[in-house]
Amino acid sequence: MDSDRPAAGTATPGAADMGKLLQQYGCGPIRFTGSGDALYERHLMFDNVADRAAVGPRERYEAVARSVRDVLSQRWVRTEQTYERENPKRVYYLSMEFLIGRSLANNVLNLLLDPVVERAAVGKGLDWLAVLEQEPDAGLGNGGLGRLAACFIDSMATMELPAMGYGLRYEYGIFKQTIRDGWQHERPDNWLRRPDPWEIARPDEMVEVRLGCSFEVRGGTLGVVVGRPSSLLGVPYDRPVVGYGGKTVNTLRLWVAAAPDDFDFQAFSAGEFVSALAERLTAESLTRVLYPDDSTSMGQGLRFVQEYFLVACSLADLVRRFRRRNSGRGDPDWSALPAKAAIQLNDTHPGLAVPELMRILLDDVRLDWDQAWDLTRRTLAYTNHTLLPEALEKWPLPWLALLLPRHLEIILEINRRFLDEVRARFPDDGGRIGRVSLIEEGAERRIRMANLAIVGSHSTNGVAAIHSHLLRTVTVKDLAEMFPERFSNKTNGVTPRRWLLLANPPLARGITGAIGDGWITDLAELEKLKPLADDRGFRDTIIRAKREAKSRFADWLRSASGIVVDPDTIFDSQVKRIHEYKRQLLNALRVVVLYNRLRENPDMEMAPRTFFFSGKAAPAYHLAKTIIKFLNNLAGTIDGDPAVRGRLKVVFLPEYCVSLAERLIPATDVSNQISTAGYEASGTSNMKFMMNGALTIGTRDGATIEMAEAAGEENFFMFGLTAEQVAGSRSWYDPRWHYDNEPETRAALDLIFSEHFSRYEPGVFDPLRQTLLTGGDHYMHLADLTAYLEADRRLLELYADPAGWARKVVLNLAGSGKFSSDRTIAEYAAEIWDVKPCPVP
Ligand code: 26Q
User: Fold this and answer.
1) What whole-number distance in Å separates Cα of residue 232 and Cα of residue 207?
2) Ligand 1 pocket mutation pick from 93, 142, 706 by most atoms within 8 angstroms of CB
3) Which of 385, 706, 828 to mutate to test the pocket of ligand 1 (most atoms within 8 A of CB)?
């Protein structure tokens, strides 16, 4: 572990021994008598009942993690006691995904225990890095949306907000990716095979979830028993969320489905990967597996039940808490609900919260419709994360009729009243009814979850300025016209604790050396670095830190995979889910053009570069899988070509995940953010790269626009069509024109279609021709290729001037302060939730 992490202000334990620390974190009558050492020894011995000389690294990891948990547990209890006593308004963040990654190093860091733990590890001859490697990633999310939820709960705990995350405890997280012959294969991620030291099961706080039908297996197939209601149980598993400094420890509560003894349930399913896991089992299979996002998996009944299960468990839990805290002798004052609870819906995935909260208030509490509707709307708020029409959730009405008949009734009544209002306000606009209705009419009627979430809440926000603008003016224009005051923007952010302090110790140390460590909890302080852009000493510090991060990565890569990369080449990365709109293919075309240039002119000067790609394709997204295949073949062909050896290298890193991001991002010089303008809602890795000293080459999309504004456009390498130009040229755009008129574009495509990268697999890349050329290219790769190459040329020109490059790196760092999730959360707290910190004494 890095002892060189910057000192963290006055709270840093320094040389305090573990015993004192335990006292510091201890509270109330409970006191540990032993030291941290003794804690560890005790866990090692008694948790395993084994000879301590015989236990392996996994047991050591568990013993360390349990010791750390011991340290935080009193603070955790104390946090909940404080909230019980003070009864503040609380935030409930409902999300189908929390992409947490590993917890040990993060918790140690946030507890400010790292100097102590490191000394203890050295004292015991423990290989700390090997211990950390024992922890599996908690991969309970697909990508940006899930990782955002994880950054948000870190920020909320650090800012001492009374907040709770609600999600599902999937037994299998995002699938594991392996690459065979260049193709992606999926394996289940059995991350809970060994006991997880961070979770606490709370069977006493189990809740019941009722469904409108039952399930039966007859003759080997699954049957639905219509009209015979049944129920499931939700068992909470709690995980600590340690705020930086260790003062507040909030809770992430993840639900597991269990069957009552008399229950018989088997899942609906579709899609091979998920069904292979989900098909066989009973009620418990509901929370077995995370659905991979493929934007076409909307037809999956099990996912629908998962979403309802999250909503039903979480609302039951928070309503129970509200009753307990707000009832004097009789019933609680239900009108106080919005003053005590703010529920944030992470996309429409938990959108059934609208009819569920209505159901509770109408049927259980017995309020009248108007009261129930007013409270529901004032309690709920919704965040949108996508404009892609195919990714907007729409659930078939018959599914609700079968599973949630009462909810369907409520939705239809919401819609009836809403459309009456629409007719009254816009009597001459007949088309509007069809556009804003909560129901999409057609052969199969569907519930439009985004419309439901907007109508049923008091706040709708997008996740970057351009995204919020397009949401308001294009995607849900009619609704935004009706309720303009409900719409706002909350530009995303990332936690600087995990993504800078923990991931990049050399850089963090360099920053702290220059401006102190206030940036850890107030990232805007990075602005103080701006004048240092012209300070040669500081520039050198930063460049040395980058170099150190690069060689650390190269060393790790060699030992973990045998792949050798040269840290003296430019590290150029694009890491994210594989999707057409993110345009990994555009990046690949750039590489092919550079490759062609070198082949034609072997003596030309070109700074040596290493291109990293990493990311998963949804298992059923065939074109995305072909893109992965192409990237791998590109890597293989270039590797095998002596003409470019040492000058150009392409690496596809399998199994992109949080812990791989933590290694690669700090080592990256050039960050590629090249989505078709108007399609990437925000992006968040773009921010991580920026605060780790990479320069960005990118399109004017998502939060990248705001990043360039913050650092100064002149310090960014922006290129390509704007969102307006994309929309304006779609009707006449012709990829063929670029092929016919741009020699480098044509040469690159010709090389691909000549099977240069598929000599032994002719035809495998035919689908790419269809995408890029003959099929009209919806994402307009070729329209941006020459501009990309031109931006790339400017980038290389700057690279030839090390001082100029370093200067821009510093100016980027200095401008990255806005992109802390602390800033984002401060905006949600003030403008949507109206919640205040509730410090734990
Ligand atoms: C839906 C139905 C069935 C199965 C899966 C899904 C599903 C799951 C995950 C749909 C979408 C997602 C994830 C979306 C996502 O990650 N969006 C990203 O959110 C980030 C945080 O706001 C943004 O930065 C990215 O731009 C956006 O793509």
Assistant:
1) 9
2) 142
3) 385
304 Cβ below 6 A of ligand 1: no
The yes-or-no answer on residue 247 being catalytic is no
Instruction: Mention every residue, 6+ apart, whose C-beta is less than 8 A from residue 168.
Output: 96, 140, 254, 255, 256, 287, 290, 306, 309, 310
Hey, is 279 helix, strand or coil? coil
Nearest Cα to Cα of residue 406 among 467, 368, 446, 357: 357
- For residues 346 and 95, is the Cβ–Cβ distance under 8 A? yes
pLDDT in tens, 569-591: 999 999 999 999 999 999 999 99
Is pLDDT above 60 for 14?
no
The span from the CA of 771 to the CA of 781, in Å, is: 9
Q: Which residue, 576, 583, 489, 94, is CA-closest to 293?
A: 576
Work out which ligand 1 atom sits closest to the CA atom of 703.
24
DSSP summary character for residue 122: H
Query: Cα(279)–Cα(16) distance, rounded to whole angstroms?
Result: 54
Sort strands 446-448 and 394-396 into parallel, antiparallel or unpaired. antiparallel
pLDDT band for position 270 (cuts 50, 70, 90): very low
Q: Is the CB of 152 under 6 A from ligand 1?
A: no
CA distances from 138 to 47, 98, 149, 189, 577 (A): 22, 8, 13, 10, 17
Residues in the chain: 841
Cα 365 from Cα 363, distance rounded (Å): 6
* Token code pair at residue 48: 């395993």
User: Cα(193) to centroid of ligand 1, in Å?
Assistant: 27
Confidence of residue 267 (pLDDT cuts 50, 70, 90): very low
Per-residue model confidence (pLDDT) at position 296? 54
pLDDT per position as a tens digit, 725-747: 999 999 999 999 999 999 999 99
Dihedral of CA 533/535/536/541: which sign?
negative
Question: Domains of the chain (ranges plus CATH)?
Answer: 15-86 (no CATH), 144-492+827-833 (3.40.50.2000), 496-819 (3.40.50.2000)
For residue 221, the model assigns a pLDDT of: 54
